[in-house]
Amino acid sequence: MKKLSQLIAPLTPKELIGNTDIEITMLTPDSRRVEAGALFVAVRGVTVDGHSFIPVVSTTGVAAIVCEQLPQFLDPTITYIKVENSAVALGMLASQWYDNPSRKLKLVGVTGTNGKTTTATLIYEMARLAGYKAGLLSTVRNYVDGTPYPTEQTTPDPLTINSLLHQMVEAGCSYAAMEVSSHAADQHRIAGLTFAGAVFSNITRDHLDYHKTFDNYLKAKKSFFDNLPSEAWALTNIDDKSGMVMLQNTAAQRYTYSLRSEADFTGRIVEDRIDGTLLSLNGKEVETMFTGRFNAYNLTAVYGASVLLGWPVEQVLVNMSRLVPVAGRFQTARSPRGYVAVVDYAHTPDAVVNVLNAIHEVKGRDAKVITVVGAGGNRDKGKRPIMAAEAARLSDRVILTSDNPRFEDPSAILSDMEAGLDASARARTLTIVDRREAIRTAAALASSGDVILIAGKGHEDYQEIEGVKHHFDDREVVLDIFKNETPA
């Protein structure tokens, strides 16, 4: 329980009606969870406006309501706090409710279209390798020190974020890393958090089903940096054309990283193989277990963030050599018949290009590349033909298949992808709706030395069809196929 006056201290109400010297038993934006003594925050969501539930909530014994628009009837037993933006207020209230845990940690946020999960996870791992307790909020899994917690969203709601950060503080964590999605920035889910640092990876077309325009998507990413405090640092990829845009209006200390030009943190690929990369970081070489230029960018960002967090450079380099790939991110497995299967989360055109380019950089000269790829349902339809075209451009054979069709007809999604193929690409492309069969077909087409890329789902262990999640794991399917193969 907390005093209402204490909870709303960070807010600047436009209007305050009622008593603030009262005890609050719970904080929630969910009208279904409101109970006597609660503080209800009416948030205008994407599909539902919390203000429409105020009349119902008022009958529950709710103690106070935060809103952007006061209801016509004011109950004298309820305290009303009118604010400019309820979503922002919810973030600030959530931080107060959990005693501002982000101020007690060195919290690093990572944003960008691709590389968020790998970069955030590796910063978390670097903290642990340096001997510190740390936490992670990511697409794959949340961690409080070494204890895993399931994840539903790339960036959770403010109450979940602060609850997990509070658990990290209670567990003795000193550091935390989190992915910051464009949705989360736009919906103010990170409002009220204090970041020690922020990393920008890159930006390419994604989530236009939500943001509508690329400019809106860019602005959502940039808003994260715009709101950083002057005590924080901001690390951006200057090889991305929008890299310096992120720093235009930030008050944070500005730093850069690059693989192509001079920067505060400069990476160079010395040697690239299917199972690792020899990387030069600010002139010092380190052997890593990661493959591809895109991972070289991720590792350079991790190196920069680690140094900016104050860890000794020599220790950072040693620990980077101990890092292992994140689940579902360029995970490789060699078949008994001699071909290699790569499972990767690549689900945007740019990510598919990055992974296929990485494969071309390390495969044998005569090796074929066979790509299995799909596109999610009820998401940005515009990227579907682009993904198919890029996959065909960089592969010898392509198999289009289901990803997570959600509430769409899988065949309709694949038709959208096929629209991006010219006659030459179509001749090298198969369309197989059943994902398991598509992977089996790719394996049957492969010869010793070839590389199969299975893109789109990576770490996911389910396939979502008509709102139901069915167990499906690309990695499991691959290993099952290997069990039945006769060695070459």
Give a verbal description of the structure.
The structure is a single chain. Strands 11-10-9-12-8-13-14-15-16-17-18 form an 11-stranded mixed beta sheet, sandwiched between helices. The chain has a 6-stranded mixed beta sheet with strand order 19-20-24-21-22-23, sandwiched between helices. Strands 2-7-6-5-4 form a 5-stranded mixed beta sheet, covered by helices on one side. 31% of the residues lie in helices and 23% in strands. Helix 9 runs antiparallel to helix 10 and helix 12 crosses helix 13 (410-418). A hairpin with a 2-residue loop joins strand 10 and strand 11 (147-149). The chain is α/β, with parallel strands linked by helices and 488 residues long. It is built from 16 helices and 26 strands.
Features:
488 residues, eleven-stranded mixed beta sheet, alpha/beta, 16 helices, 23% strand, six-stranded mixed beta sheet, globular, 31% helix, single chain
Gist?
This protein is an alpha/beta fold and 488 residues long. The protein has 16 helices and 26 strands. α3 (86-97) runs parallel beside α5 (158-170), α11 packs parallel to α12 and α12 (383-393) crosses α13 (410-418).
Shape: globular
The total count of strands amounts to 26
Q: Given the structure, what is the number of helices?
A: 16
Can you list the strand order of the major beta sheet? Answer: 11-10-9-12-8-13-14-15-16-17-18
What's the main sheet like? 11 strands, mixed
**Uncertain segments of ≥5 residues (pLDDT<50)?**
none
Give average pLDDT, whole number.
94
Beta-strand percent range = 15-25%
Please compute the radius of gyration using only Cα atoms.
24 Å
User: Structural class from helices and strands?
Assistant: alpha/beta
- Percent helix: 25-40%
Alpha carbon gap, first and last residue: 66 Å
